[in-house]
Amino acid sequence: MPTKHEQILQYIDHLPIGTKISVRQIAKDLDVSEGTAYRAIKEAEVQGYVSTIERVGTVRIEKKQKENIERLTFAEVVNIVDGHVLGGREGLHKTLSKFVIGAMKLEAMMRYIDAGSLLIVGNRDQAHKLSLQHGAAVLITGGFDTSDEVKQLADKLALPIISSSYDTFTVASMINRAIYDRLIKKEIMMVEDILKPLSETAVLHPSDTVATWHEYTNRYGETRFAVADDQMRVVGIVTSKDIIGHGPQVTIDKVMSRNPIVTSSRVSVASSAHLMVWEGIELLPVVDHHKKLVGVLSRQDVIKALQYIQKQPQTGETFPNLIMSNFREMKEGEQTVYIGEVTPQMTNHLGTIASGIITTVMVEAACNVLREHRRGDMVPENVTVYFLKPVQMESEIVVRPKLLDISRRFGKVEVAVYHEEQLVGQAMITAQIIER
After folding, report:
1. Is 198 exposed, middle or buried, given 0-12, 13-18 or 19+ CB atoms closer than 10 A?
2. Which UniProt keywords apply (predicted)?
3. 281 lies in some domain
4. What's the burial of 30, exposed, middle or buried (CB within 10 Å: 0-12/13-18/19+)?
5. Is pTM, for the whole model, over 0.85?
6. Are 278 and 432 in contact (CB under 8 A)?
7. How far is the C-alpha of 436 from the C-alpha of 433, rounded, in Å?
8. Is residue 406 within 8 Å of 370, Cβ to Cβ?
9. Which of 60, 85, 104 is the last residue of a domain?
10. Residue 73 sits in the same domain as residue 182
11. C-alpha distances out from residue 298 to 262, 272, 422, Å
12. What is the pLDDT along the chain (436 residues), one digit of tens a residue?
């Protein structure tokens, strides 16, 4: 029987998109305490099908799939630009397909606006009205209001009119950044994307016997299974090593390995791969917020996923990508070196290269050297910085990584950084190698 917390989550999940949700109303409808209702609503927000908006309240929104994670709802736009809603609250759950900056005449502006757009404009009531009539929402910059006629039209069409105190350039930059961050998230493969759900695998129970393990092995072609109790909480793992020497009638609770390592569906595949290699395990049970089993992850699943990621085009750059884009790669005999300039974005408030930036450069250079010798993902295990000296903005630095040791699973690299032939930084980096 589901707990009260689970009942509330199911109730919220079945509410129509756009429904306003209150702690008091849910507590009353489901006869639970307000504390229980509050915790469940927060959990629904974490899971992505509820959004809380200042001066509006909590709204049931459409849960985003991986394919359209980069598309923002108007409710999320309100939070991003610290805005407030003047009208059209019923449409906050809708997603925007693009945004248009209204810095042109009305006739020209309307050529770019269609259903699902967001017009970013100042206090131009006529532009607000025409945008709504074309099926687009409106974001008014500079903290301006709009006419009552426009607000009524927004309510009628369920298209939000949002006001923000920021200027047009700032709100456009904020929305762009939010979309860009989501593109990066979209590229990062999560455990939930590749886990084997319970419908596709077998789960043993403590009261099952070794004979059941043999039956499942023949049926599913696997030798490792998660063990869960009647509430589907993970209590163990059983493998072929555990079964050796035990008769068919021995129960699983007598042979299983207890207190297994588990992971969450919202953990990245790379992080889980690192955990499996580090702990030397082949099967990782995946649990939800309540520690209940939702699926399993095998080392084979991880390897296939990492191979798939390697073949995909990259669209969103992370900070290490952006930092290393300032460096060019060159060969000095057998050694690879990286040469680049200290740009203003790489400096601290004193105008010298920030310690975090130079450390990132050294780690990336070390991982690149390891990739020359091993195919796979490099996960830094230990970074020991011996010393750093200040390097001024617009100075050229040369990064020289030197491979000290490499094995099937680990690599060790010493990295030296020079400016005008003077040593300005040195570190030792140890990385784990996750083979694809």
Report:
1. middle
2. CBS domain
3. yes
4. middle
5. no
6. yes
7. 9
8. yes
9. 60
10. yes
11. 12, 10, 49
12. 667 877 888 888 888 877 888 888 888 888 888 888 888 888 888 777 787 766 667 878 766 554 444 578 888 898 889 899 999 988 888 888 888 888 888 888 888 888 889 999 999 999 999 999 999 999 999 999 999 999 999 999 999 999 999 998 899 888 888 877 776 666 677 888 888 888 888 899 999 999 999 999 988 888 899 999 988 999 999 999 999 989 999 999 999 999 899 998 888 887 888 788 778 888 999 998 778 899 999 888 887 776 665 555 444 457 787 788 889 999 888 889 999 999 888 898 888 999 999 999 999 999 999 988 887 778 888 999 999 999 999 899 999 999 999 988 889 999 999 999 999 999 999 998 876 5
Distance CA 335, CA 337 (A): 6
Cβ 247 vs Cβ 235: under 8 Å: no
User: Is 420 domain-assigned?
Assistant: yes
Say if residues 121 and 140 touch (Cβ distance below 8 Å). yes
Show the tokens assigned to 422.
Answer: 């003077």
Q: 34 lies in which domain range? A: 4-60
For residue 279, the domain's CATH number is 3.10.580.10
Number of domains in the chain: 4
Per-residue tokens: 174: 């904020």
d(CA 160, CA 74): 7
User: Which amino acid would we find at residue 422?
Assistant: Q
Q: Do 51 and 95 belong to one domain?
A: no
**Statement to judge: residues 166 and 277 lie in one domain:** no
Domain membership flag for residue 314: no
Structure tokens at 79: 């939070």
In the listed set 288, 309, 330, which residue is the last one of a domain according to the structure? 309
Sequence length of the chain is 436
Q: From the CA atom positions of the chain, what is the Rg in Å?
A: 28
28, 116: one domain: no
Segment holding 284, helix H or strand E: strand 283-287
Q: Do 363 and 353 touch, CB atoms closer than 8 A?
A: no
Determine the Cα angle at 67 with ends 62 and 68, to 5°: 45
| 63/95 Cα distance (integer angstroms) | 11
Together in a domain, 328 and 276: no
Q: Taking the CB of residue 141, how many other CB atoms lie within 10 A of it?
A: 24
Given the DSSP bridges, would you call strands 396-406 and 422-435 parallel, antiparallel or unpaired?
unpaired
136 lies in the same domain as 203: no
DSSP letter for each residue of 197-264: EGGGS-EE-TT-BHHHHHHHHHHHS-S-EEEE-TT-BEEEEE-HHHHTT--TTSBHHHHSEES---EE
User: Do the domain assignments include residue 333?
Assistant: yes
**Do 371 and 279 lie in a common domain?**
no
Tokens found for residue 271: 């992080």
